Amino acid sequence: MASCACRVSFMNNQKPQKPTLSGQRFKTRKRDEKERFDPTQFQDCIIQGLTETGTDLEAVAKFLDASGAKLDYRRYAETLFDILVAGGMLAPGGTLADDMTRTNVCVFAAQEDLETMQAFAQVFNKLIRRYKYLEKGFEDEVKKLLLFLKGFSESERNKLAMLTGILLANGTLNASILNSLYNENLVKEGVSAAFAVKLFKSWINEKDINAVAVSLRKVNMDNRLMELFPANKQSVEHFSKYFTEAGLKELSEYVRNQQTIGARKELQKELQEQMSRGDPFKDIILYVKEEMKKNNISEQTVVAIIWSSVMSTVEWNKKEELVAEQAIKHLKQYSPLLAAFTTQGQSELTLLLKIQEYCYDNIHFMKAFQKIVVLFYKAEVLSEEPILKWYKDAHLAKGKSVFLEQMKKFVEWLKNAEEESESEAEEGD
């Protein structure tokens, strides 16, 4: 009965009007009355109900479901979530006031293990599915809790991290809440990185690194993870070492790959600018080699970037009979640049596949494929062995019948030239 009385008291703050003799009195509409904000009374009702249900989380979920029809969840969302996470209303900084009523039926008072946090995640899921308007309030609550991390004990932080990871995995939370972890003080004291370890472990445990990557990408967070560390430690090496030692090798590899992708994009952008300015090839080659070394980019990747950059600097003729001549003239000019990055057979094969793909995707170039390959052979960008390997079994399926037919006579000539050079070498011996 105490619980019922609490609810009735809370929902009926307005006193009945007394009759008056001093003229006519208009009754104020209920929606026009300024209702008093009283989170303390709301807190007492919730805590009393949780105390009665005990630690049975299914009973807790049912209580919260039923109470939403009687209590003003929309108005007191922050108080509700403070109680469910910390056991009572939080003061700025994340502390519970000593004189405040509190409950042990909350995340912070629960056992510190994944199974318990999964059970609590179900309580939040059911509550937010039932009362959809709580979604925004819950996201705001988690953002606030992350800013309060320094005010919590290590165990409380660990539980919150596990819970947050689970809720990110099942879609209850949006990855944009992670912005709070980039708070300067949290980063400086190492709180953000330590919290992220527990969070990503539980997130990846529920899903996998690919699902995590998709969620991060949606909110443009995929390239910001190194900001979990102070500026002087924001390197791939430091990130990789820290998270690998913490048992998150897949996250380390993901960040390393993201860094490489970013470096490739930057390289291509700079290359195109250097080409448009007409910078000397020796300067471009020097710049590219420095970037390769600094960002651990392979020659195969670089030759593909150079090919793409070279082909994007021209407005190509739309007439098939004219575009081949235009392409040969243009590519002859850039042959020395491409030759500097085809020092390995695999790089030459990569370039051949890029040429095939480009000629197939751009229909005006379909008849230009063989002419481009012959040009690069004469300019010593490509050599016999990769061309023969491409012809035999390393070509793409895209337009292969057309391109193999174009290359047939040239390949036969290469084979004959190779046989003649071998016989000459034998005679010499």
Instruction: Based on Cα principal axes, name the global outline.
Output: elongated
Helix and strand content put the structural class at mainly alpha
Tell me how many strands there are.
Answer: 0
Measured by DSSP, the beta-strand proportion falls in: under 5%
**Percentage of residues assigned to helices:** 55-70%
**N-to-C series of helices and strands:** HHHHHHHHHHHHHHHHHHH
Describe the largest sheet: none
The helix count comes to: 19
Keywords: Activator, Transcription, Transcription regulation, Translation regulation
InterPro entries: ARM-type_fold, eIF5-mimic_regulator, HEAT_5MP1_2, W2_5MP1/2, W2_domain
Family: Belongs to the BZW family.
Pfam families: HEAT_5MP1_2 (PF25504), W2 (PF02020)
Describe the protein in words:
The protein is an all-alpha fold. It is 65% helix and 0% strand. It has 19 helices and no strands. It has helices spanning 2-11, 39-53, 57-67, 77-86, 114-130, 134-147, 154-169, 184-188, 191-206, 209-218, 236-245, 249-277, 281-295, 299-311, 320-339, 345-361, 369-378, 384-394, 400-428. The longest helix is centred in the middle third of the chain and has 29 residues, at 249-277. Keywords: Activator, Transcription, Transcription regulation, Translation regulation. Residues 257-424 form the W2 domain.
